[in-house]
Design goal:
The protein has 19 helices and twelve strands. By secondary structure, it is an alpha/beta fold. It binds adenosine-5'-diphosphate and magnesium ion (MG).
């Protein structure tokens, strides 16, 4: 979306209000009624002066005062109703947008989150959406009512005295010009400030995510300076823009004051008959009242104008997020309930960044039920390889087949349903232990949950937790050790009973003894399932019948450990290193 197409943003935002058009019409009608009633009040005041004071018809004073009071009551009531309707519309809109943004985030490709800071999305979801609400509140109340008030006042002014009105309006173009010149600058300024706010949020969210590392390396001062510098920039930018806006506002107020002085000066002369086209005193009083009435909507409309500028910037950021390309899910083919789990990489090329290939012409077929271990130096591309079958990333060339079907032809949910993946840092959701295991197997019974835990060797530690399977873990819950997390993550996968299981150094947090025990205990469950194990320690996979070696994105070895020690220098080197490190 180009920065200079506010109209598109505006039209799309308006389209979101469309479902609430009934209420919006009601709000506009109410503000119109309020403005109309307001317009009549100076007119009554004029009558009051003409009939009651000048022509000494005292009996009508009470009647006119009563009418004025009634009108003011009607104005207040109409405003109240309009504002409460408005609260409903704007809150609902904000809530819908927030939900759409959150939903969109869940549909973006996983690759997206490797590139952007979470602060950026957070800023758009909360700060920008709230700003849209403020805008809506002012804009909707202003646009109907204030416009009518301004136009109506000018109409009455003309009726009361054309000459005076012309004098008054002579200063208006200067105000409009000021408004136009400054609005563009202010809009840019606020856009820049919002980007800086997102950057600042990003810094904080990064810091929150890496507290232990910051503390361990004594990075407090450094991080504080980093935050302060960013915060100071945001301060400067916002201050500059606020000042520009204040300057423009004050200029407009001053121009209005000049208008009033001109009116009173010239009007007084008209009344005193010193100038041609004389004027009655009650007309001048009404004129002054209408002039005062005019100042308010103009000031509000000009503020609304700024708010529109700001909220267009926010609206653009929110819409931009909604426009981010989501994960392609064009596949139409389904998998049977019990797929075989054959996985096949055919000439797969992959790179995160252009011209930095991570996998080169990678070929590998894993037969149904086969277990394949992948080893290789760090940075070889093992984790990348483990994520490609889930379509977290898409190969640049070549294809990946699951049971002979190109992944892109499969329904994404179907594909992921049949792959169990345990990454390096198993994630714990906030909830109970049982809920964590049943994540992705919604509605699983307690019995099967406990069974899965047993197969993942997790039940003994779970029993020792304060409330067993009902212990709350994750955020605001009991903290688990790395090994306990892994076992929960494995139980979660076991419960889903996938045809293909992928472990990416999942057990690296365990000590060797626990690791070995865990593998031997889940080996029964693994048998018959296609398994890809990315090994952290060679010791755990040495007797695996098939080991493939990955080095710098290329497959450089494929065989048993004994064959590889003979034929594959990369494997042999890793073997030597690890056997020296871990004396047997
Ligand atoms: N999200 C990413 N963006 C850019 N480059 C990445 C990303 N993840 C990994 N890489 C790069 O890809 C290469 C392979 O990484 P990875 O698959 O994690 O290797 P391994 O798991 O074998 O240690 C490395 O050079 C790494 O720097
Ligand atoms: Mg890795």
């Amino acid at each position: 979306m180009s920065e200079d197409r506010p109209f598109t943003v505006y039209r799309r935002l308006m389209a979101m209000i469309w479902p609430y058009r009934g209420r919006v019409v009601l709000i506009i009608l109410l503000t119109l009624v309020a403005s109309l009633a307001t317009l009549l009040i100076p007119w009554l005041a004029r009558r009051l002066f003409a009939d009651a004071v000048r022509e000494a018809r005292i009996g009508r004073i009470d009647l006119l005062l009563g009418a004025m009071l009634g009108l003011m009551g009607a104005v207040s009531l109409a405003w109240y109703l309009a504002e409460s309707q408005l609260a409903h519309v704007s809150l609902r809109l904000v809530e819908t947008l927030r939900r759409r943004v959150a939903d969109k985030l869940l549909r973006l490709p996983v690759a997206h989150f490797a590139r952007t800071s979470s602060g950026d999305a957070l800023g758009r979801c909360f700060h920008d959406i709230n700003r849209l609400r403020t805008f809506l509140n002012h804009a909707l109340l202003s646009l109907g009512g204030d416009l009518l008030l301004a136009i109506g006042s000018v109409g009455f002014l003309f009726y009361l005295s054309t000459r005076l009105t012309v004098v008054l309006l002579a200063v208006t173009p200067i105000g409009v010009l000021t408004l136009l010149i400054t609005s563009r600058r202010v809009r840019r300024g606020y856009h820049a400030a919002q980007n800086q706010m997102a950057d600042l949020t990003g810094v904080l969210s990064e810091q929150l995510g890496s507290m232990p590392a910051i503390r361990a390396f004594g990075g407090e001062e450094h991080e504080h300076r980093r935050f302060s510098a960013q915060s100071e920039q945001l301060f400067d930018q916002t201050l500059r823009t606020d000042r520009q806006q204040a300057a423009a506002r004050s200029t407009i107020s001053f121009l209005a004051a000049v208008g009033v002085v001109l009116v009173l000066g010239y009007g007084a002369r008209l009344v005193l008959g010193q100038s041609a086209g004389g004027m009655r005193i009650e007309d001048l009083i009404a004129f002054a009242l209408y002039t005062a009435l005019l100042a308010d909507p103009i000031r509000r409309l000009s503020r609304t104008h700024y708010e529109i500028q700001q909220s267009l910037a926010s609206g653009r950021r929110v819409l931009e997020l909604l426009d981010w390309p989501q994960q392609q899910d064009l596949g139409t083919r389904s998998l049977p309930d019990f797929p075989l789990g054959r996985l096949c990489f055919q000439s797969v090329q992959f790179s995160y960044r252009a011209n930095e290939p991570v996998l080169h012409d990678f070929n590998l077929t894993i037969e149904p039920g086969q277990t394949v271990a992948v080893v290789g130096p760090s940075g070889a591309g093992k984790s990348t390889l483990s994520m490609l079958p889930l379509r977290f990333y898409e190969p640049a060339a070549g294809r990946i087949l699951f049971d002979g079907i190109d992944l892109r032809d499969l329904k994404l949910a179907d594909l992921r349903r049949h792959i169990g993946w345990v990454g390096q840092d198993p994630f714990i959701f906030s909830g109970t232990v049982a809920e964590n295991i049943a994540y992705g197997s919604w509605g699983a019974s307690r019995e099967v949950i406990e069974n899965a835990a047993r197969q993942a060797c997790a039940d003994s530690f779970i029993q020792s937790l304060p409330h067993g399977f009902n212990t709350r873990i994750g955020e605001r819950g009991v903290d688990l050790s790395g090994g306990q997390r892994v076992r929960l993550a494995i139980a979660r996968v076991i419960l889903r009973s996938p045809a293909l299981v992928i472990f990416d150094e999942s057990t690296s947090a365990l000590d060797t003894e626990t690791e070995t025990r865990l593998w031997s205990e889940i080996s029964h469950w693994l048998s018959g399932r296609t398994t890809l194990i990315i090994a952290h320690r060679l010791a755990t996979i040495l007797d695996c019948p098939r080991i493939v070696v990955l080095d710098q994105g290329r497959l450089v070895g494929d065989g048993t450990a004994d064959q590889l020690r003979r034929d594959c220098p990369v494997f042999n080197r890793i073997f030597q290193q690890q056997m020296n490190l871990i004396p047997q």
